[in-house]
Amino acid sequence: MSNIVWAVIAVACAGLGVFVGYVLRKKIAQAQANSIEAKAEKILTEAKTKQQEFILQAKEKAVQIVEDAKREEKTVRQELHNMQQRLERREGMFDQKLLEFQDKQQKLQEKIDKVQQIKLEVEKMRDQEVEKLQGIAGLTREEAKTELLSRVEDESKNDLAARIMKLEKESTEVFEEKARGIITDAIQRCASSHAAEMTSTAVTLTNEDMKGRIIGKEGRNIKALEKLTGCELVIDDTPDTIMVSGFSPIRRQIAKLALEKLMADGRIQPARIEEFVEKAKQDLAIDIKKAGEEALYKMGITGIDPKLVGIVGRLKYRTSYGQNILNHSMEVGYLSALIASELGVDAAKAKKCGFFHDIGKSVDQETQGSHPEIGYMILKKFNMDEDVCQTAKTHHMDKAYNIFASIAKAADAISGARIGARKDTYEQFVARLEELEKTASAFPGIEKVYAIQAGREIRIFVKPNEIDDYSAFQLAKDIARKIEQELQYPGEIRVTIIRETRVVEYAK
Fold this sequence. Notes:
Blueprint: H1 2-137, H2 141-189, E1 200-204, H3 210-215, H4 220-229, E2 232-234, E3 241-245, H5 249-265, H6 270-299, H7 306-314, E4 319-320, E5 323-324, H8 325-343, H9 347-355, H10 371-381, H11 386-394, H12 403-417, H13 424-441, E6 446-452, E7 457-462, H14 469-486, E8 494-499
Parallel strand pairs: 7-8
Antiparallel strand pairs: 1-3, 2-3, 4-5, 6-7
């Protein structure tokens, strides 16, 4: 029994504990719920407050924007009003000016009408006076005019003839005096070198033993040099000097350059001689181009084709009566510019015309035709100005193409007429040697022809595949016979035929 009671009590206690736990839990949950709702309500209240603040700020900004827009609209309206007032004032002024212009135009038209009326009245009065004069004189107007002119002509004929003769004489004297003054002034203001070109060039040796090395064993080195350059090497007692003799300045320069290179290299033998002669030719080509560029720079001439510059440089190695053509061309250019400035003509153009007047002489020895015609073709090929081309063509004619050609012709005569500028004997000597080489070159199978020893010997190199040994004997006789028939020369000329076969093979 007691156990049952204690079990009931335990069950009751357990149930009471469950009930009490349930009540406590409910109260705790209720308290927590109340706390969350309070927080949510607080957040909601704060959000509503901020919303009201934002709405108030937005309304204030909207009011501010509206006020700014109203102020800007007011300003724009005021500016438009002011602009409208200015336009109305300008329109009023324009209407006033238009009315004044119409008034002046009307007054001017009235004056024109009045002048026309007066002119008609004057012409009517003049016709009446002419009719009265014709009635008194018994002549028509044309008859009176003819009669008056014939009388004046008869009375003035002698006076006019005398006056014309006097004026012509005075003009001729004045013009001659002025031309003489211009030419004299140009000569005095232009100074240039007039040393005549010679037919020999001196080569300075590094030492006296170099002469023997240049001659070589049995003279093979000097023979190879003379064969390849076409010049004669004169080795005498002059210390440390060898003379290169030849009428062609280009050949002499090639020989000089080759000798200098051989002495610097030290290995003087036929194979090296041939190599250095080729190098000398290449160096000479470069030197020719530099000479052309330097001459054009000194003359102040630009825009020239590089090929034409090379042609100009060739004039450095061309002479006429012993006068260097490049120096002569530069002198003619300077003189032309001086004369043109005195005459009031384009001095730069005159200088250009004078400088290029002898350009044909650069290739006239290799091309058929006179140097004026060759020069004209060269300049036309490079699209030079027509005045420059015609100056080169007509500077030796009695009637020049234009004033630039006349100026170049006068300058050319001044340059050639200076004392010591030219030597006739030198030009005749060169022409004789050129003619001698040309005569021998006319035969077939000939490769090179060189006139040496002042024309006393001519060396002819033939093509070995075309001329055999037996034909060489006959060719020498034919050339000697042709020289006897066509050329005039003192003494005798030695004709040497050289036939050489060279075979080259390489061992690898």
